[in-house]
Amino acid sequence: MVEAGLGCERLGRSSVTYRIGLFAAGSDDAAALGRFVHVYVDRVTRAVVPVPEPIRAAVEALRR
After folding, report:
1. Total-model pTM
2. Of 21, 11, 9, 5, nearest to 57 (Cα)?
């Protein structure tokens, strides 16, 4: 069994940097750590756009 954790490292105007951790079940020590950046873009124009408000609100909860 593997447990995963997700947190928000940075919430910008048009991007979110997430941090992730993978843990053996019940362990407090991470077996793997990482991060990734999600940049929001318009589907048609591919121009960078602000993080949508519903997403921003959900990500705010990960910052706590």
Report:
1. 0.83
2. 11
